[in-house]
Amino acid sequence: MEYMTIQEAATKWFISERRIQVLCMRGRLPGATKFGRQWAIPANTDKPEDARIKSGKYIKHCAVT
After folding, report:
1. Which of 25, 26, 41, 62 is deepest in the core (most CB within 10 A)?
2. Percentage of the chain modeled with pLDDT above 70
3. What is the CA radius of gyration of the chain?
């Protein structure tokens, strides 16, 4: 299997390297593994969808009791 680095993914997907690090840490990139201090992302991985809320309506994360 062929892998790409965070820098290569940032260039390919037009997003920042830090954003890709966060996606890797949160498990949003399937198959991404960490080797020491570096992330290895499978080369055939597609850019994940943007999960941010764009409607302006925020979801409450904790229930009020």
Report:
1. 41
2. 85
3. 15
Task: Count other C-beta atoms under 10 Å from residue 56's C-beta.
Answer: 5
At which residue do the structure tokens 């290895």 appear? Answer: 40
Q: In sequence order, which residues have a C-beta less than 8 Å from that of residue 48 and are 6 or more positions away?
A: 23, 28, 29
Q: How far apart are CA 43 and CA 31, in angstroms?
A: 10
Distance CA 19, CA 17 (A): 5
Is this structure's pTM higher than 0.85? no
Cα–Cα distance for residue pair 46/61, rounded to 1 Å? 29
